[in-house]
Amino acid sequence: MKYEITNETHSICPNLHRIRALKDFGNVNKGDLGGWIESEKNLSQEGNCWVFEDARVYEDARVHGYADVSGNARVHGNAIVSGYAEVSGNAIVSGCAWVSGYAEVSGNARVSGYAMVYGDARVFEDAEVSGCAKVSGDAKVSGDSKVSGDSKVSGYAKVSGNAKVSGCAEVSGNAKVSGCAEVSDEVVTGNTWVTGNTEEPVSQFPNEITIDGVIYVKKV
Q: Which of 2.60.40, 2.40.50, 2.30.29, 2.160.10 is the CATH number of 121-220?
């Protein structure tokens, strides 16, 4: 065993107990106190995975492999955090969501439903990924943006600002969706830029599309 569950209970959620390392592994030293879990099913006794600081993992959620959950992050429901993934800050991973690979979910980000974040993808700031959406590759979802439905964000794509990607939309390549743009059931790829509601539309790149109330998607 690499850790034990102590008798110290969480002040708000008394069903959660703090953990203590029983040996050195990864970035954890024997005797280190970790975060909070409900039972051993929440944190594998194998690998270097760990729950740090005031992070909480509970219900039927699982953390395994080399994954870390830290800060004030919460992982609950049937969510899984695996591989070398990191969930930190005030992020919440819930439902049947899956965060794996080298993916990072941080800030005030939310990943829920059956959403998947994997590869080297990042979801941060106040972004939300929900439904059956997938964020993969080196994609970044940030700001107050929302990715939902069966949509996919992959490659080096970026979704930021107050943008919304929904339905069966696909954003890939080096594409960027920002501002208040809404992309639903469309394909945005290549070097296309989609932005929305800007006061002074500016086109700095051949494939950039500025939206003022109407969405235009240029495929390249």
A: 2.160.10
User: What pTM did the predictor assign?
Assistant: 0.91
**Is the pLDDT confidence value at 52 over 50?**
yes
**Bridge-based pairing state of the strands 110-111 and 128-129:** parallel
Write phi, then psi, for 32 (nearest 5 degrees). Answer: -60, 140
Please give the CATH topology (third level) of the domain spanning 1-119: UDP N-Acetylglucosamine Acyltransferase; domain 1 (2.160.10)
Mean pLDDT of the chain: 91
The answer for residues whose C-beta is within 8 angstroms of residue 171's C-beta and 6 or more apart is: 139, 151, 152, 153, 154, 157, 159, 165, 177, 183, 188, 189
At 67-84, the pLDDT tens digits run 999 999 999 999 999 999
